[in-house]
Amino acid sequence: MKFKKLVLTGAAGRLGSYLREPLAAMCEELVSSDIAEDIGKLYDGERYQKADLAEYDQVAALMEGADMVVHFGAIVDEKPFMELLGPNFVGSYNVWEAAYQAGARRVVYASSIHAVGMHKKSDFIGIDAPHKPDTFYGLAKCFTEDLGSMYWDKRQLESVHLRILSAAQVNNSRALGSWLSYDDLIQLVTRAVDTPSVGFSVIYGVSNNDRAPVDNSKASFLGYRPKDNAEQFAEKVLAEEGPVDITDPGQMCHGGPFAKVDLGESGIAQMTIVDDKKET
Ligand SMILES: NC(=O)c1ccc[n+]([C@@H]2O[C@H](COP(=O)([O-])OP(=O)(O)OC[C@H]3O[C@@H](n4cnc5c(N)ncnc54)[C@H](O)[C@@H]3O)[C@@H](O)[C@H]2O)c1
Ligand SMILES: O=C(O)[C@H]1O[C@@H](O)[C@H](O)[C@@H](O)[C@@H]1O
């Protein structure tokens, strides 16, 4: 199935960069967007348009004739609320409202495990677990999921909320459960786009890890069947990490290090992201 036009936000980002080529292949025109000046060489059928998510007019200018929006643009770490307000909260509103006004039928959104990050890992949470954000960053993901739910109920704009766990190199024991490989990310986004009817849906973005701490069984209709398994890294990671403090919220909760961020000091939770394309 070829769509006429898809829009990708966050196209200059780590995950957006992996999505550009497969999305371009699914449509006649891919409009890739980011706040960055440019994104380098374009794929067949791809066009780049700079836009600040916090500015409605700039977001609306992306949408004319769009079938769907794949919304990956955001500030991707914990920050003071006022720094997240424009890109992550208002930005989501702008995407949904502009998509609706343009007659688009679906938004596929990069949500996060941090929308439910304060749940204990010993609770094998499903897609219907109540929101339990661990940070202002996670709160913006909760806000956007609720926004998507409301636009579906009131305006029949579909959305799929991909609660991605960790799309990064497996270098700690949490990631043995939370890893999402880039190939599985591409399959996840492809299924979210090409499944004919999704209404308002939530699914965890996680690979087929032996230690995956979340349950996607109620999202099986989306047809996402991850292939990669972080267990291949277990021996090395466990040997390097040594014993952990089991009373540490960062160990006990789904949100990992974000679960122990003091909101008063938000901005300190910088996670080390290592791009591991060559190794996975
Ligand atoms: N990488 C992960 O493990 C992970 C996990 C859960 C969720 N996510 C979500 O996936 C998405 C992509 O994450 P990533 O890891 O590729 O991060 P990234 O920082 O590499 O990409 C985010 C992109 O958003 C753009 N952006 C930021 N502010 C903007 C603004 N005001 N207007 C327009 N664009 C703006 C940035 O320029 C950047 O290119 C984010 O929404 C993130 O919250 C990522
Ligand atoms: O929890 C995780 O591993 C990841 O969660 C994502 O939402 C964050 O954007 C990223 O910085 C974290 O590394």
TrEMBL record:
SUPFAM superfamilies: NAD(P)-binding Rossmann-fold domains
Keywords tagged on the record: NAD, Oxidoreductase
Keyword NAD: yes
Protein name, UniProt field: Uronate dehydrogenase
Keyword hit for Nucleus: no
EC number in record: 1.1.1.203
Any Pfam family matching the protein: Epimerase
Domain NAD-dependent epimerase/dehydratase: 7-164
Gene Ontology molecular function: any one: uronate dehydrogenase activity
Family: Belongs to the NAD(P)-dependent epimerase/dehydratase family.
Organism listed in the record: Sulfitobacter dubius
